[in-house]
Amino acid sequence: MKDTPLSNCERDFLLKAIEEKKRLDGRQTYDYRNIKITFGTDYGCCFVDLGKTRVMAQVSCELVAPKETRPNEGILFFNIELSPMASPAFEPGRQSELSVKLNRQLERCFRNSKCIDTESLCVVSGEKVWQIRVDVHTLNHDGNLMDAASIAAITALCHFRRPDVSIQGEEITVYTPEERDPIPLSIYHMPISVSFSFFQQGTYLLVDPCEREERVMDGLLMIAMNKHREICSIQSSGGIMLLKEQVLRCSKIASVKVSEITELISKALENDKKARKAGERCGFAESMPQERITALKMDETPVEMKNVTEKAEDIVKKYEAPPQSVPSPLVPAPGVGQVGQGQQNSWGLEEEDGESEEEEEMVVEDQPKNKLDQGECCK
Q: Which intervals of the chain form a coiled coil (predicted)?
Protein backbone atom coordinates (compact mmCIF):
# COMPACT_ATOMS: atom_id res chain seq x y z
CA MET A 1 0.00 0.00 0.00
CA LYS A 2 1.45 3.33 -1.06
CA ASP A 3 1.05 6.54 0.86
CA THR A 4 -1.52 9.09 -0.26
CA PRO A 5 0.17 11.86 -2.28
CA LEU A 6 -0.22 15.50 -1.35
CA SER A 7 -2.68 17.62 -3.23
CA ASN A 8 -1.63 20.76 -5.09
CA CYS A 9 -3.27 22.95 -2.46
CA GLU A 10 -1.31 21.28 0.35
CA ARG A 11 1.93 21.52 -1.61
CA ASP A 12 1.42 25.22 -2.36
CA PHE A 13 0.48 25.91 1.25
CA LEU A 14 3.66 24.24 2.57
CA LEU A 15 5.92 26.06 0.12
CA LYS A 16 4.25 29.39 0.85
CA ALA A 17 4.73 28.84 4.61
CA ILE A 18 8.42 27.99 4.09
CA GLU A 19 8.90 31.18 2.08
CA GLU A 20 7.51 33.14 5.02
CA LYS A 21 9.85 31.22 7.40
CA LYS A 22 6.99 29.42 9.10
CA ARG A 23 6.56 25.69 9.77
CA LEU A 24 3.54 23.51 10.45
CA ASP A 25 4.52 22.65 14.04
CA GLY A 26 5.52 26.20 14.97
CA ARG A 27 9.29 25.66 14.92
CA GLN A 28 11.86 28.07 13.62
CA THR A 29 14.10 27.30 10.66
CA TYR A 30 16.98 25.76 12.64
CA ASP A 31 14.97 24.19 15.49
CA TYR A 32 15.00 20.48 16.28
CA ARG A 33 12.00 18.62 17.53
CA ASN A 34 11.94 17.35 21.12
CA ILE A 35 14.18 14.32 21.63
CA LYS A 36 13.31 11.69 24.24
CA ILE A 37 15.64 8.77 25.04
CA THR A 38 14.50 5.75 27.05
CA PHE A 39 16.04 2.35 27.68
CA GLY A 40 14.69 -1.17 27.87
CA THR A 41 15.08 -3.69 30.64
CA ASP A 42 18.11 -5.38 29.05
CA TYR A 43 21.36 -3.73 28.09
CA GLY A 44 21.53 -2.47 24.51
CA CYS A 45 17.84 -1.66 24.04
CA CYS A 46 17.06 1.98 23.33
CA PHE A 47 13.99 3.96 22.25
CA VAL A 48 14.30 7.40 20.67
CA ASP A 49 11.40 9.78 20.07
CA LEU A 50 12.15 12.62 17.66
CA GLY A 51 8.85 14.47 17.72
CA LYS A 52 6.38 11.86 16.49
CA THR A 53 9.09 9.78 14.82
CA ARG A 54 9.86 6.78 17.03
CA VAL A 55 12.57 4.14 16.50
CA MET A 56 13.97 1.28 18.57
CA ALA A 57 17.55 0.00 18.45
CA GLN A 58 18.57 -3.39 19.82
CA VAL A 59 22.21 -4.51 20.03
CA SER A 60 23.19 -8.18 20.21
CA CYS A 61 26.47 -10.07 20.02
CA GLU A 62 27.65 -13.48 18.81
CA LEU A 63 30.96 -15.35 18.55
CA VAL A 64 31.78 -15.92 14.86
CA ALA A 65 34.79 -16.53 12.68
CA PRO A 66 36.52 -13.30 11.55
CA LYS A 67 37.00 -12.12 8.00
CA GLU A 68 40.06 -13.44 6.21
CA THR A 69 41.29 -9.95 5.39
CA ARG A 70 41.00 -8.77 9.00
CA PRO A 71 41.55 -11.72 11.36
CA ASN A 72 42.16 -9.53 14.44
CA GLU A 73 39.06 -7.33 14.20
CA GLY A 74 35.46 -7.88 15.22
CA ILE A 75 32.50 -7.40 12.93
CA LEU A 76 29.98 -4.55 13.13
CA PHE A 77 26.68 -5.16 11.33
CA PHE A 78 23.70 -2.79 10.88
CA ASN A 79 20.16 -3.57 9.82
CA ILE A 80 17.24 -1.14 9.47
CA GLU A 81 13.73 -2.54 9.24
CA LEU A 82 10.93 -0.34 7.91
CA SER A 83 7.74 -2.01 9.05
CA PRO A 84 4.28 -1.11 7.70
CA MET A 85 3.27 -0.37 11.29
CA ALA A 86 5.32 2.85 11.07
CA SER A 87 3.82 4.07 7.79
CA PRO A 88 1.47 2.66 5.13
CA ALA A 89 4.10 3.56 2.51
CA PHE A 90 6.42 0.79 3.78
CA GLU A 91 5.82 -2.64 2.29
CA PRO A 92 6.60 -5.76 4.31
CA GLY A 93 9.03 -8.43 3.16
CA ARG A 94 11.09 -6.36 0.75
CA GLN A 95 13.81 -3.74 0.99
CA SER A 96 12.95 -0.35 -0.42
CA GLU A 97 15.33 2.30 -1.71
CA LEU A 98 14.94 4.21 1.55
CA SER A 99 16.02 1.24 3.70
CA VAL A 100 19.07 0.59 1.49
CA LYS A 101 20.06 4.25 1.65
CA LEU A 102 19.66 4.34 5.45
CA ASN A 103 21.71 1.15 5.86
CA ARG A 104 24.56 2.50 3.79
CA GLN A 105 24.51 5.83 5.58
CA LEU A 106 24.67 4.11 8.99
CA GLU A 107 27.59 1.96 7.87
CA ARG A 108 29.48 5.02 6.64
CA CYS A 109 28.63 6.90 9.81
CA PHE A 110 29.78 4.22 12.29
CA ARG A 111 31.96 1.66 10.55
CA ASN A 112 34.03 3.90 8.27
CA SER A 113 34.52 6.51 10.99
CA LYS A 114 35.84 3.75 13.29
CA CYS A 115 33.92 4.98 16.31
CA ILE A 116 34.20 1.50 17.90
CA ASP A 117 37.44 -0.30 18.65
CA THR A 118 36.91 -3.46 16.63
CA GLU A 119 40.25 -4.95 17.70
CA SER A 120 38.99 -5.18 21.29
CA LEU A 121 36.28 -7.53 19.99
CA CYS A 122 38.84 -10.20 19.05
CA VAL A 123 38.82 -13.32 21.27
CA VAL A 124 41.21 -15.65 19.40
CA SER A 125 43.05 -14.23 16.39
CA GLY A 126 41.83 -15.82 13.19
CA GLU A 127 39.34 -18.08 14.99
CA LYS A 128 36.76 -16.28 17.13
CA VAL A 129 35.68 -12.66 17.28
CA TRP A 130 32.57 -10.86 18.50
CA GLN A 131 30.02 -9.85 15.90
CA ILE A 132 28.05 -6.81 17.10
CA ARG A 133 24.67 -6.54 15.39
CA VAL A 134 22.57 -3.38 15.58
CA ASP A 135 18.91 -3.77 14.56
CA VAL A 136 16.95 -0.55 14.15
CA HIS A 137 13.15 -0.86 13.94
CA THR A 138 10.92 2.03 12.94
CA LEU A 139 7.84 2.23 15.13
CA ASN A 140 6.39 5.46 13.73
CA HIS A 141 7.45 7.53 10.74
CA ASP A 142 7.03 11.30 10.80
CA GLY A 143 10.13 12.33 8.88
CA ASN A 144 13.92 12.41 9.43
CA LEU A 145 14.43 8.70 10.07
CA MET A 146 18.19 8.96 9.59
CA ASP A 147 18.77 11.29 12.52
CA ALA A 148 16.55 9.23 14.83
CA ALA A 149 18.24 5.98 13.73
CA SER A 150 21.75 7.36 14.28
CA ILE A 151 20.88 8.62 17.78
CA ALA A 152 19.25 5.32 18.71
CA ALA A 153 22.13 3.22 17.31
CA ILE A 154 24.96 5.07 19.07
CA THR A 155 23.00 5.25 22.34
CA ALA A 156 22.28 1.52 22.24
CA LEU A 157 25.96 0.77 21.52
CA CYS A 158 27.03 2.89 24.51
CA HIS A 159 24.45 1.15 26.69
CA PHE A 160 25.30 -2.38 25.53
CA ARG A 161 27.38 -4.83 27.62
CA ARG A 162 28.94 -7.95 26.10
CA PRO A 163 29.60 -11.14 28.15
CA ASP A 164 33.01 -11.73 29.66
CA VAL A 165 35.17 -14.46 28.11
CA SER A 166 38.09 -16.54 29.39
CA ILE A 167 40.43 -18.79 27.41
CA GLN A 168 42.10 -21.92 28.81
CA GLY A 169 44.11 -23.67 26.13
CA GLU A 170 41.72 -24.22 23.25
CA GLU A 171 38.58 -23.96 25.39
CA ILE A 172 36.62 -20.68 25.32
CA THR A 173 34.27 -20.02 28.25
CA VAL A 174 31.52 -17.40 27.97
CA TYR A 175 30.25 -16.27 31.38
CA THR A 176 26.68 -15.25 32.16
CA PRO A 177 25.90 -11.89 33.78
CA GLU A 178 25.32 -13.71 37.09
CA GLU A 179 28.80 -15.22 37.05
CA ARG A 180 30.74 -12.17 35.88
CA ASP A 181 29.80 -8.58 35.17
CA PRO A 182 29.40 -7.88 31.44
CA ILE A 183 31.90 -5.58 29.71
CA PRO A 184 30.97 -2.35 27.85
CA LEU A 185 32.17 -1.68 24.33
CA SER A 186 35.19 0.53 23.67
CA ILE A 187 33.78 3.60 21.90
CA TYR A 188 36.06 6.40 20.76
CA HIS A 189 33.46 9.00 19.74
CA MET A 190 29.74 9.31 19.01
CA PRO A 191 28.88 10.25 15.40
CA ILE A 192 25.41 11.74 15.00
CA SER A 193 23.64 12.58 11.75
CA VAL A 194 21.96 15.95 11.14
CA SER A 195 19.65 16.34 8.12
CA PHE A 196 19.03 19.53 6.12
CA SER A 197 16.26 19.90 3.54
CA PHE A 198 16.40 22.41 0.67
CA PHE A 199 13.48 24.01 -1.14
CA GLN A 200 13.21 25.87 -4.44
CA GLN A 201 16.64 24.78 -5.69
CA GLY A 202 18.48 25.59 -2.48
CA THR A 203 16.93 28.98 -1.78
CA TYR A 204 15.41 27.95 1.54
CA LEU A 205 16.86 25.64 4.19
CA LEU A 206 15.21 23.69 7.05
CA VAL A 207 16.70 21.54 9.81
CA ASP A 208 15.04 18.28 10.88
CA PRO A 209 12.27 18.11 8.24
CA CYS A 210 9.01 16.40 9.13
CA GLU A 211 7.24 13.91 6.88
CA ARG A 212 5.17 16.47 4.94
CA GLU A 213 8.17 18.74 4.45
CA GLU A 214 10.14 15.80 3.04
CA ARG A 215 7.48 15.33 0.33
CA VAL A 216 7.85 18.83 -1.08
CA MET A 217 11.64 19.27 -0.66
CA ASP A 218 13.98 19.43 -3.64
CA GLY A 219 17.09 17.97 -1.99
CA LEU A 220 18.47 16.56 1.27
CA LEU A 221 21.90 16.91 2.86
CA MET A 222 22.94 14.55 5.71
CA ILE A 223 26.07 15.39 7.70
CA ALA A 224 27.37 12.94 10.36
CA MET A 225 29.63 14.64 12.89
CA ASN A 226 30.91 14.12 16.43
CA LYS A 227 31.26 16.66 19.24
CA HIS A 228 34.89 17.31 18.24
CA ARG A 229 33.58 18.81 14.96
CA GLU A 230 35.00 15.98 12.91
CA ILE A 231 32.88 15.12 9.87
CA CYS A 232 32.35 11.33 9.77
CA SER A 233 30.27 11.19 6.58
CA ILE A 234 28.33 13.48 4.28
CA GLN A 235 25.73 12.61 1.67
CA SER A 236 23.60 14.71 -0.66
CA SER A 237 20.52 13.46 -2.47
CA GLY A 238 17.90 15.00 -4.70
CA GLY A 239 20.05 16.22 -7.59
CA ILE A 240 20.43 19.86 -6.51
CA MET A 241 23.62 21.88 -6.84
CA LEU A 242 24.86 23.25 -3.53
CA LEU A 243 27.39 26.03 -3.16
CA LYS A 244 30.43 25.79 -0.93
CA GLU A 245 29.02 28.47 1.38
CA GLN A 246 25.82 26.47 1.85
CA VAL A 247 27.72 23.33 2.86
CA LEU A 248 29.92 25.27 5.30
CA ARG A 249 26.86 26.90 6.79
CA CYS A 250 25.21 23.51 7.29
CA SER A 251 28.37 22.12 8.92
CA LYS A 252 28.41 24.96 11.46
CA ILE A 253 24.76 24.35 12.32
CA ALA A 254 25.42 20.61 12.59
CA SER A 255 28.31 21.13 15.04
CA VAL A 256 25.98 23.00 17.44
CA LYS A 257 23.20 20.42 17.17
CA VAL A 258 25.59 17.48 17.61
CA SER A 259 27.08 18.91 20.80
CA GLU A 260 23.59 19.36 22.30
CA ILE A 261 22.48 15.85 21.34
CA THR A 262 25.72 14.30 22.67
CA GLU A 263 25.16 15.99 26.02
CA LEU A 264 21.59 14.69 26.11
CA ILE A 265 22.77 11.12 25.40
CA SER A 266 25.40 11.34 28.16
CA LYS A 267 22.82 12.50 30.69
CA ALA A 268 20.41 9.71 29.72
CA LEU A 269 23.14 7.06 30.10
CA GLU A 270 24.20 8.46 33.45
CA ASN A 271 20.65 8.52 34.81
CA ASP A 272 20.06 4.93 33.71
CA LYS A 273 23.31 3.83 35.33
CA LYS A 274 22.35 5.44 38.64
CA ALA A 275 18.88 3.89 38.54
CA ARG A 276 20.24 0.39 37.90
CA LYS A 277 22.88 0.74 40.61
CA ALA A 278 20.32 1.90 43.17
CA GLY A 279 18.01 -1.01 42.28
CA GLU A 280 15.16 1.23 41.12
CA ARG A 281 12.60 0.38 38.45
CA CYS A 282 14.05 0.91 35.00
CA GLY A 283 13.16 0.07 31.43
CA PHE A 284 9.74 -1.45 30.77
CA ALA A 285 9.21 -2.08 34.50
CA GLU A 286 9.17 1.67 35.10
CA SER A 287 6.15 2.16 32.82
CA MET A 288 4.12 -0.65 34.42
CA PRO A 289 1.51 0.45 36.97
CA GLN A 290 1.97 -0.51 40.59
CA GLU A 291 -0.40 -3.25 41.74
CA ARG A 292 -1.48 -1.65 44.99
CA ILE A 293 -4.13 0.78 46.19
CA THR A 294 -2.80 4.27 46.68
CA ALA A 295 -6.08 6.21 46.82
CA LEU A 296 -6.37 5.95 50.63
CA LYS A 297 -2.70 6.50 51.29
CA MET A 298 -2.00 9.10 54.01
CA ASP A 299 1.21 10.69 55.09
CA GLU A 300 2.37 9.87 58.61
CA THR A 301 1.88 12.75 61.05
CA PRO A 302 4.31 13.04 63.97
CA VAL A 303 2.73 12.78 67.43
CA GLU A 304 4.33 14.54 70.41
CA MET A 305 4.62 12.21 73.41
CA LYS A 306 6.13 14.74 75.86
CA ASN A 307 4.26 15.64 79.10
CA VAL A 308 1.32 13.47 78.18
CA THR A 309 0.35 12.60 81.77
CA GLU A 310 0.46 16.22 82.93
CA LYS A 311 -1.75 17.35 80.08
CA ALA A 312 -4.21 14.55 80.77
CA GLU A 313 -4.46 15.50 84.47
CA ASP A 314 -5.08 19.15 83.62
CA ILE A 315 -7.90 18.19 81.26
CA VAL A 316 -9.50 15.96 83.93
CA LYS A 317 -9.35 18.74 86.55
CA LYS A 318 -10.97 21.34 84.29
CA TYR A 319 -14.06 19.28 83.62
CA GLU A 320 -16.36 17.83 86.29
CA ALA A 321 -17.48 14.24 86.18
CA PRO A 322 -21.04 13.78 84.79
CA PRO A 323 -23.79 12.74 87.32
CA GLN A 324 -24.35 9.04 87.55
CA SER A 325 -27.98 7.99 86.88
CA VAL A 326 -29.15 4.75 88.53
CA PRO A 327 -31.78 2.88 86.48
CA SER A 328 -34.88 1.59 88.29
CA PRO A 329 -34.69 -2.15 89.06
CA LEU A 330 -38.45 -2.57 88.53
CA VAL A 331 -38.71 -1.13 85.06
CA PRO A 332 -36.27 -2.75 82.64
CA ALA A 333 -34.85 -0.92 79.73
CA PRO A 334 -37.07 -0.91 76.64
CA GLY A 335 -36.33 -3.55 74.09
CA VAL A 336 -34.66 -5.87 76.65
CA GLY A 337 -36.10 -9.30 77.24
CA GLN A 338 -35.05 -11.75 79.97
CA VAL A 339 -35.85 -15.46 79.89
CA GLY A 340 -36.46 -17.75 82.88
CA GLN A 341 -36.93 -15.15 85.64
CA GLY A 342 -40.61 -15.45 86.41
CA GLN A 343 -43.90 -14.27 84.92
CA GLN A 344 -44.62 -10.66 84.01
CA ASN A 345 -47.90 -8.83 84.29
CA SER A 346 -49.30 -6.38 81.83
CA TRP A 347 -47.06 -3.62 83.29
CA GLY A 348 -43.91 -5.65 82.79
CA LEU A 349 -43.37 -6.23 86.58
CA GLU A 350 -42.34 -9.61 87.86
CA GLU A 351 -44.48 -11.42 90.44
CA GLU A 352 -43.55 -14.09 92.92
CA ASP A 353 -45.30 -17.44 92.74
CA GLY A 354 -46.66 -17.41 96.32
CA GLU A 355 -48.31 -14.01 96.13
CA SER A 356 -50.08 -14.78 92.91
CA GLU A 357 -51.73 -17.98 94.31
CA GLU A 358 -53.04 -16.22 97.45
CA GLU A 359 -54.61 -13.45 95.41
CA GLU A 360 -56.42 -15.98 93.21
CA GLU A 361 -57.91 -17.75 96.31
CA MET A 362 -59.13 -14.46 97.72
CA VAL A 363 -60.88 -13.60 94.49
CA VAL A 364 -62.64 -16.99 94.39
CA GLU A 365 -63.85 -16.72 98.01
CA ASP A 366 -65.19 -13.20 97.56
CA GLN A 367 -67.34 -14.01 94.56
CA PRO A 368 -70.09 -16.11 96.29
CA LYS A 369 -70.32 -13.73 99.20
CA ASN A 370 -71.02 -10.92 96.87
CA LYS A 371 -73.74 -12.96 95.20
CA LEU A 372 -75.43 -13.78 98.54
CA ASP A 373 -75.26 -10.22 99.63
CA GLN A 374 -76.82 -9.15 96.42
CA GLY A 375 -79.58 -11.73 96.84
CA GLU A 376 -80.32 -10.71 100.36
CA CYS A 377 -80.54 -7.14 99.31
CA CYS A 378 -83.02 -8.01 96.60
CA LYS A 379 -85.23 -9.91 99.04
A: none
Q: What is the pTM of this model?
A: 0.72
Instruction: Output the tens digit of pLDDT for each of the chain's 379 residues.
Output: 466 778 889 889 988 998 888 888 888 888 999 999 999 888 999 999 999 999 999 999 999 999 888 889 999 999 998 888 888 888 877 778 888 888 998 988 898 888 999 999 999 988 899 999 999 999 999 889 999 999 999 999 999 999 999 888 888 888 888 888 899 999 999 999 999 999 888 788 999 999 888 888 888 999 999 999 999 989 888 878 888 898 999 999 999 999 999 999 999 999 999 988 887 766 655 555 555 555 555 566 566 667 778 888 888 777 766 666 655 555 555 555 444 444 444 444 444 444 444 444 444 444 544 444 444 444 4
Domain spans of the chain? Answer: 13-283
Report the 10 Å Cβ neighbour count for 378: 6
Contact status, residue 144 vs residue 209, Cβ threshold 8 Å: yes
According to CATH, the topology of domain 13-283 is: Ribosomal Protein S5; domain 2 (3.30.230)
Q: Give 134's strand partners.
A: 59, 78
The pLDDT value recorded for residue 289 is: 56
Q: CB within 8 A of 227, min separation 6: which ones?
A: 189, 190, 258, 259, 262
User: Distance between CA 53 and CA 140 in Å, rounded?
Assistant: 5
